[in-house]
Design a protein that fits this description.
alpha/beta; Protein-Tyrosine Phosphatase, Chain A; 5-stranded mixed beta sheet; 5 strands; 10% strand; globular; hydrolase; phospholipid metabolism
Length: 218
């Protein structure tokens, strides 16, 4: 499915943008935020798109959770929220950490620039650990603006960690649950790198386990 969701390109290597391009990306992300948010609201009303979709018993992947959605989140047994948004994206319509805490909902913000960026590996690791630590206590609502790209990248990494899936298996599962996810080259690269790091960690653990050490000494 290329950049639109169904498969992961394992051979992507990216060149970092220069300072001028970074500035342009920042400005475009800010200027386009409200028009694209309202577009997403419109599409949810006139198409088959859902504002959010359940991925498994632990995770919901969705768009920006509005303050008015508190009762809906409670009905879904949401106990925590992970936001991939920058501060300016949350100001008008969503709650702060304190605001969610007033409703008994934990909150983790892993700010990532919209449209042209993927979450860094440190944020992906932190987000996955956050979900795993809450496993069995309720649902974690993972979101960005539209629930298509930044948050989908994190959820793919969670699926690989939790179910020991390969990148294409994680992406395909998300695509079945939420068909309008949108993953570009940077997101594919981040997912693939996370998978490689997972495999490297497993290999290291096997080499340093007591059983491995005793086997090597024979």
């Amino acid at each position: 499915m290329g950049g639109n969701g169904g498969s992961v390109n394992q051979n992507i290597r990216l060149t970092p943008p220069g300072p001028g391009k970074i500035f342009a990306i920042k400005m475009f992300a800010r200027v386009s935020f409200y028009p694209t948010l309202f577009y997403n609201i419109f599409m949810e009303k006139v198409s088959t798109r859902n504002w959010y979709d359940r991925i498994d018993s632990n995770v919901i992947l969705g768009a920006l959770p509005f303050r008015s959605m508190v009762k809906t989140l409670e009905a879904e047994n949401v106990k925590a929220i992970i936001s991939m948004n920058e501060d300016y994206e949350l100001t008008l319509f969503s709650n702060s950490k304190q605001g969610w805490a007033e409703h008994g909902i934990d909150f983790l913000q892993l700010p990532t620039r919209d449209i042209f960026e993927a979450p860094c590996q440190e944020k992906l690791k932190e987000g996955v650990e956050f979900i795993e630590n809450l496993k069995g206590t309720g649902t974690v609502y993972v979101h960005c603006k539209a629930g298509r790209t930044r948050s989908a990248t994190l959820v793919a990494c969670y699926l690989m960690e939790h179910y020991k899936w390969k990148p294409n298996e994680a992406v395909n599962h998300m695509f079945k649950c939420r068909p309008h996810i949108l993953l570009g080259p940077k997101q594919h690269f981040a997912i693939t790198l996370f998978y490689e790091n997972l495999n490297n960690n497993v290999t290291k653990e096997r080499k340093t386990s007591p059983r491995s050490s005793s086997t090597q000494s024979l």
